[in-house]
Amino acid sequence: MKAFFKPKSKTPAELVRQARDLLLFADRAAAPHIKDAKRDQKMKDLNKVIGELKNILYGDSDSKPVVETCAQLAIEFFREDNFRLLITCLPKLNFETRKQATQIVTNLQGQKLQSRLIACEYMERNLALVDILIAGYENNDLALHYGAMLRECIRHQSVAKYILDSQHMKKFFEYIQLPNFDVASDAAGTFKELLTRHKSTVADFLSKNDDWFFADYNSKLLVSTNYITRRQALKLLSDILLERSNSAVMIRYVSSMDNLRIHMNLLRESSKSIQIETFHVFKLFAANQNKPTDIINILVANRTKLLRLIADINNDKAADDEKFNYDKSQVIREISALNSINDDG
Predict the structure, then answer these.
(1) Whole-angstrom Cα distance, residue 117 to residue 7?
(2) Beta-carbon contacts of residue 225 (< 8 Å; ≥ 6 apart)
């Protein structure tokens, strides 16, 4: 008989409206006139409806997500300021519900209607919400949740540009070196996403900010005492400089004697992985066909040591071995052929 009286499923609009009412309650739940019993029941209701929203987007054991229903839920969710409510109320949710709320937000950022990201216009009108998400890195309990949301928001070019053009970029150099390994790794993942996802926006940012950006990058990341930080920073730097849209920035970077010195020192590290990642940047200095005089002279002055260091670097990855050995031979040939230049010549 129970099957005949199974309650009718709520529509996306009804679920979002119920979630909004409960989030509004949670936002003011600390008010002294609200009794504990009422507060507890409302929070239980909120946990339940967040679970229902998550099941619509991801499906459950009985059903798979329906594209049209998911899109409708996204439209209803971003129609009002529900995203702001959800992220500001996140600290008041229990751990499991925080995880579900994070899954909801990350999913909704990618929902499309006729190939258009539904969340895009909302994010463009509410860029200040990004400030809340970034500040989450300063709270270990919220950092991974806000970080996951933030990376999905960065799929919108307007959000990425907002962060790149803000003072937040300087903060990431600190977040990447936080003592909590999980939080630091999450921040590094977001930092990489910012600097690789929207290529034209990144190229514009670097062309205008390369002086301070690479000064901080070198002094805070490449010479960090943390091995993982150094290795990840070298790999990302290589990706940035080898990106075709960043070619002008790359030429400026490899024309700097200070930058060259840093990478010459990194080639001397005992870690094979650091040596290999460094080589992928160092080879750009050697390949530059318009080397400044001071770059040529420092390469010539240190030629014997450099050739020995480069010859001793070996890549254990068989799939990359042929390309790596070719690059090594090219670098060795370039450096061997250099002649020192007098400034008055």
Answers:
(1) 33
(2) none
- Among the listed residues 280, 286, 251, 254, the one whose alpha carbon sits nearest the alpha carbon of residue 267: 280
Residue 296's pLDDT band, with cuts at 50, 70 and 90, is very high
pTM of the predicted model as reported, rounded to 2 decimal places? 0.90
Beta carbons within 8 Å of 337's beta carbon, 6+ residues apart: none
pLDDT score for 1: 47
Reference 73, options 128, 26, 113, 125; nearest CA is: 113
Name the phi and psi angles at 117, rounded to 5.
-70, 120
By the 8 A CB rule, do 295 and 285 touch? yes
Q: What dihedral angle (degrees, nearest 10) is formed by the CA atoms of 122, 124, 125, 131?
A: 100
C-alpha closest to that of 246 among 278, 296, 290, 281: 281
Could you tell me which of 22, 18, 56, 21 has the C-alpha nearest to residue 40?
Answer: 22
Residue 304 structure tokens = 């014997």
Q: If we measure between CA atoms, which residue out of 299, 271, 270, 272 comes closest to residue 286?
A: 299
